Amino acid sequence: MSSPLLLQTVWFGVALSDLWFGVVFAFLAIFLFLDGWDFGVGVVFATREDHHQREQCLAAIGPFWDGNEVWLVVFGGGLFAAFPPVYAALFSRHYLLLFGVLAALVLRGMAPEFYEQREDRRWRTWWGRAFVAGSVGAPFLLGVFAGNWLLGVEGVAPASIIVGLAVVALNVASGAAFLRLKTTGPLAEEMADDGARAMAAYLGLVTLALGLLALRPGLSGALLSPLPVALVVGSVLLGVGYVVAARRDRPYVALGASGVVTGGLVALVAVLMYPVVEPATGLTVEEAVVGSPAVELLTVGAAVLIPLVLTYFGVLYSAFSGPIDPEESY
């Protein structure tokens, strides 16, 4: 028989603890996709020598990056509100790692502002490098964080490093598709090749990461379960679809494919972890969820606020849809 707590936290046949486990990871996936293409544009920025193309990169993400970062706050807030013991354990155990993520995000946000303040070559070189460092550092460290969370380790595990590199490569693929949509001329024309190489790198890195995870006794059997296998196979097929779409100049399809692949990566981490939500201590979803009245209020509040946030993003992307002006700058 179900416990009284479980009875109080089941709505329409769905346990709210399980619902919020999925919602928290969905917030993470949305952030890694939306801000991921901003990070990817930052990496592409590093490969451009032409000042005009660099300005195009900055102008393409200018209206969006600060709004996209909201989803990282939503992820952290959702984790804190729904699973406070997990939030406390993760953020204290990875204190320096998460401060590194924040430092990279601050650097990524500051750098374009300072880059535009002076036309001095050395000044722009320095701040351009700072922009690239923030754009690479944030997704890499977030990938390491996700890998450590899954493995329940505190240090730097080899598999976590590979996951961090894979997230960077996936972000570059998303960023290339985004730039193909938002820019014109030589920069846009080169994005198909850049995106295809990034997606190939992502698939190779994920394969390596899965191989390392398979060596761990607690995960080797889980990786062969039907759902993880389906997620891996689906990601490979979508990765191939991304390359085909990019080659055929279908950037919307390519960007959509990269978004689903991003969701698949986060879903794979969640599926391998469930029903445990804190592998380091073995704490399960049901044990870690906040008490019944609080989780019910949280669910009602989210049902009201999340549609409003999604509406805001719909208006934002509609207002700035289409390619940027070729002469536009940040």
From TrEMBL:
Source species, domain of life? Archaea
Q: Where are the transmembrane segments?
A: 20-46, 70-90, 127-151, 157-179, 200-219, 225-245, 252-277, 297-320
Where it mainly occurs, coarsely classed, is membrane
> What keywords were assigned to this record?
Cell membrane, Membrane, Transmembrane, Transmembrane helix
The yes or no answer to whether the keyword Cell membrane is present is yes
Can you say where in the cell this protein is located?
Cell membrane
For whether the record's keyword set contains Cell membrane, the answer is: yes
Q: How does it sit in the membrane?
A: Multi-pass membrane protein
Pfam family, any one: Cyt_bd_oxida_II
An example of a Gene Ontology cellular component annotation for this protein is: plasma membrane
- InterPro entries annotated for this entry? Cyt-d_oxidase_su2 (IPR003317)
Official protein name in the record: Cytochrome d ubiquinol oxidase subunit II
Species name: Halorussus aquaticus
